[in-house]
Every structure is written in C-alpha cells, then in structure tokens.
Known about the structure:
Elements: H1 3-18, H2 20-35, H3 39-44, H4 52-66, H5 71-75, E1 77-80, E2 83-86, H6 96-108, E3 118-123, H7 129-137, E4 141-147, H8 150-162, E5 167-171, H9 180-184, E6 189-194, E7 199-200, H10 209-212, E8 221-222, H11 229-241, E9 242-251, H12 257-266, E10 269-276, E11 282-289
Amino acid sequence: MLIKDLENIFHEVLDAVYGKEEVSSFFFLCTDAFYNISRFELALNRDLAITKAEQQVVFDALEALKNEKPIQYILGETEFYGLPFKVNENTLIPRPETEELVQLIIDCHSERSDESPLSLLDIGTGSGCIAISLAKNIKNVQVYAMDVSAKAIEKAKENTVLNDAEVAFVEGSILEETQWNLLFEDLKFDIIVSNPPYVRNLEKTEIQNNVLNNEPHLALFVEDDNPLIFYRAITKFAREKLKENGQLFFEINEYLGQETKALVESLEFKSVEIIKDMFGKDRMLKAVFVKSKK
C-alpha cells in the first residue's frame, strides 16, 4: 500500500471526528512512530509504500482513533517541555498549560546561584513530567515526587531513565495526614508544586470524550461539594514542610481561582498570586511561606 493512499484513508475515516488538520497530525505521528518515515520524507517521495505485513499496526491505530482513544496512549509517548515522556492509561497526558507552570518555576529561580542547593517536591506526579522537567532545568536541585498510584510511579520511573534525570519517588496519599512524617521524615523543601485533581463532576460536560473515556479519573475529578480538598491538604502539608520563604506552586481550576487563593491565604501564606495562562484563564497560583511571629 502506498503511504499516500493510507493518508487518504485516515482523512476519510477521521475528518468528521477530529477535523482535517488534526487528522494530518495523527497520520504523520503514526508514520513516524511505526515506520520511521518523517513528514519531510513523505513530501519528497509520495510513492513510499508499506507491505501488507506492516499495515496491521497502523490500522489498529486508526480504529483506536475512530473510537476517540488519545493518540498519546496509542503511541505510548508524548512530548512535554521539549522532553520525551512515556504515558499510559495510568497517567494523565501532559498539557501545554502545565508547561507554563514549569516555566514559571524555572523563571523564579533562573538567577539563583548554583552553589546553593534546592529541594523540591512534586505532589501527584503522574508521568513525572513536572518533576523531571524541573530536575533537568534547575541547577543543583534535589527533586522528590509523590503519587498515590504505584502504576503511575512505575511509568514516571521509566521517564527518569528515558530523560537521564534524578528524582526520588514516594508512594502515598497527600490526603492521609498521618502519613506525612512517615513518608518524608525530617525533610524540608524550598519548593512544593502540584497539579492535583481539580475538575468538578459538574464540569464533566466540558470534557472531551477522548479525555473522559480514557484518562484516569483519579487524577482528574473531585466531588462538587469539596472541590478544593487536595489544595487544602497540600497547603497544610506545605505549611509544615516548606522552609522559611519557601514557595508553593499550583495549577488550578480556572473557575475557582479566587476560592483557591482565599484558602491558601487562610492558611497563612503570603504574596499569594493568581497567574493566567496563555488563554487568559486563571491557571496557576504562587505563594510564599512565612512563619507566623506568634
């Protein structure tokens, strides 16, 4: 089969679901991943072909795309902050907004002398994309990453090897306050960051089917009557485990920015700031821990 004929089949089957531009992107990702044929090579030679034996894998991918399975799960990998990451159904697919959170943290420490080491904890690490990206881009930093899912940590460990990064992983639930000292003993951190579950059940109608039916709900959703449950727990944890003038960073629900800010301020954090993402939505929060003088 000629590759150009396969491309036509992709458009015939998928354009009505995704649109022509996105289907083109899927097609070129598949030909690159399965056959090591780049978009540039295809442009130069429209008569490239694959054998019948080679066709099954791409038609399996086509069927999965038709059923709205994310391309990242089909290929088992994605890119985040210029780095490759393995992903599966146990990890969220990293998103561009989260890259902005990583950039914010890097910018906050870009002028720091590399002679003074930092300790950093990523809570709810998933694929490890935040922790690993920060480990690769901040000088002299010791990175820890926590997740409740053993399977997510397994994938995150693969990603540390893939990216030649050093991250210490901890399995546990941030909601279990009795575990905090057991898991982290006498550790104190300069930075705590989290992109916790924050989508309320009432917002599920805004979520696309490929996300709703495939990505782990454990990492996405919270109950409508207690949507800030993770932010409260993490902020309380940070109050105990951050060093003086340590920084707390969150990715937040765009609809709950002011509520999240009020919560963090109520737990005695200072300089609490909401930061908008590239789309102008309330998406990040930054705060500083200053010990009470009382």
